[in-house]
Amino acid sequence: MDKPVVVGVDGSPASIAAARYAAELASRRLAPLLIVHGYVHPLGYGAAGVSPYTPALPDPRADGANLLARVASGVARQFPCLDTATEQVAAGAAPALIERSRGAEAVVVGHRGIGGCAELLVGSVGSQVAARASGPVVIFRPITERQAAAPVLVGVDGSAGCLPALAFAFDEAARRALPLLAVHVADERVEPAWLAESMLETVVAPWTDKYPLVDVRCQVRPASVVDRAMVDASSNASLAVVGSRGRGGISGLLLGSVSQALVHQARCPVAVVHPYATGSIHA
């Protein structure tokens, strides 16, 4: 069975837009779409699991079923040939999506859901899923018409963690017929420009051989703050792609500082690419 693209919906405008984006992603990848609504039981069933005082799993809710039907209907009108299924899960949204990521092609969430606070740039569900899921997680944000034709941006630091990101970024650029911009941010005080350029070209070379039709540009950006430089670069991208942790990753942290910054502050959709549950992606 083909792995589905999984998208979480809660009725918020951001989640409805994320569902459309997920449908486009699934259509490009010839994958089915699974629309998931995780509901929290008012008597104690939620992200933490079943309360010891709850005798059984709660039944699916009518409002959740109606929401899923509306979203699926909208997807069917836009993508009539897309194999689409829905699922209501007796759990919090984040645990439901994290669990389903293990058998998914990718997971898509909106940048903010119904419970999103105005001062937060990404909702708690998106943060949790981006940190803990398997495979690619796309945090969807709307972009301008100009950005839609902009390159796919991928961050490259030379670590093993950037290999899944390169695989996803090149595949998306090829499927969308978009150029790809591979960026390495280098602090010239500790990494000479010539060394940074050599590393970037060496790491990207196998992927340019595999995807000869993708227009690739490599760019070394001199900066001392890597995450700020990548957020700035996302202003001119249709999609920003990063690994979950780079060469500066600290053991115990689920996301590196660059991934976290992009999840919260990027100016375009962001794909945080973890290795799939069965292993990493390689050229």
TrEMBL record:
<dbReference type="InterPro" id="IPR006015">
    <property type="entry name" value="Universal_stress_UspA"/>
</dbReference>
<comment type="similarity">
    <text>Belongs to the universal stress protein A family.</text>
</comment>
<dbReference type="InterPro" id="IPR014729">
    <property type="entry name" value="Rossmann-like_a/b/a_fold"/>
</dbReference>
<protein>
    <submittedName>
        <fullName>Nucleotide-binding universal stress protein, UspA family</fullName>
    </submittedName>
</protein>
<keyword id="KW-0547">Nucleotide-binding</keyword>
<dbReference type="GO" id="GO:0005524">
    <property type="term" value="F:ATP binding"/>
</dbReference>
<keyword id="KW-0067">ATP-binding</keyword>
<dbReference type="Pfam" id="PF00582">
    <property type="entry name" value="Usp"/>
</dbReference>
<feature type="domain" description="UspA">
    <location>
        <begin position="3"/>
        <end position="141"/>
    </location>
</feature>
<dbReference type="InterPro" id="IPR006016">
    <property type="entry name" value="UspA"/>
</dbReference>
<feature type="domain" description="UspA">
    <location>
        <begin position="152"/>
        <end position="274"/>
    </location>
</feature>
